[in-house]
Amino acid sequence: METLIALIQAHIEHAHFIIFGSLLLAGLNIPVSEDAMLFISGVLARQYPDQLPYLFAAVYLGAYGSDLICYSLGRFVGPKILHIRFFAKMVPPKRVEMIHAYYESHGIATLILGRFIPFGVRNGLFLCAGLGKMSFIKFALADLLACTISTIVFFSLYYHYGKAVVVYVMQANIVVFIIAAIMGGYLFFHVKKRRSKR
Hints:
There is one protein chain. By secondary structure, this protein is mainly alpha-helical. The chain has one domain (2-197). It contains ten helices and no strands. Helix 4 packs across helix 8 (121-131). The protein is elongated and about 60 Å long. The termini are far apart. Keywords: Cell membrane, Membrane, Transmembrane, Transmembrane helix.
């Protein structure tokens, strides 16, 4: 993390382009951490106040663009994408079924909650929304709301508290992930049981 911050800091006048481009790559499942980009943007905005609007715009638009890319891959490439090992690891069949169960039960709330879950869950969620042919407008609007909330919250936390808050954010993410995994497991088996009775 320190190395990445130093690299971006050395090119501060281009930092917003680097962050925006990196996040778009994340939509293709290139291992770029949105959380790390939010942290870097917030910390650098504090150090370089004149760059604040550019850094926020870069991380916000990059995160949202990344989500739309991931959704579009599922929507327009379809199930064939799961035959590519690169993407198959991100959304194994059990995870696809679990996420579909979430969508069936909770709809848009799944996207909003999922936006706060790290560990590769976000991309799997967006890819599955595309695979499940969720309406593009519905996805784009729900994700716009979720992305706006999460970006403002995390950017503000990192801007005001920097490293001091990272541990708390990670702990909160783990708690949300565990709760979502338990709920997902329950929904998955509940939906499967209901289908087997038909």
